[in-house]
Amino acid sequence: MGKTLFFPLFLLIALILTLIYIPRQQYKKYLIYAAITGGMGNMLLTLIMRLLGLWSYTKIGVFNVFGFNYLEPFAWTFVQMIFLYFLPVRKWFLYAYVLGFTGLSVGFAYVIKNLGIIAEFNPTLTQFMSPLIFLAWWSGTAWFYRKIEGMNQNQEKIT
Known about the structure:
The chain has 159 residues and is mainly α.
């Protein structure tokens, strides 16, 4: 039962952190960006990992929907909201920030692996690929957000 409650607790903690840190006026903006990069990004990454035969979910209980964890995209949406809200502007801080979130994500993956929530099919390949996949995900999120926000600011200057 404890393993089944891991993702609901993760989701709840991430949600509470967004409610504490992100101002109400900006919440919708970050939710939209994070739903794209976090929620949909997570579903895409999970599908890729399954298709590549790197890992799949094993013990997610009632949250299992076609072999996917139903709560995970929502949880990663809230984590991405936190990531985007605190995203640094200066380049070197941004690099360190992205690397930090990459490390946290790899650590998170090891936690759910050690809990038995996911099963690795090829541990050596997974250990090599996971950091690269997470680095691409966080870098892509930062790039996407900065690109769209830059376009929005340019559009506001024109009108």
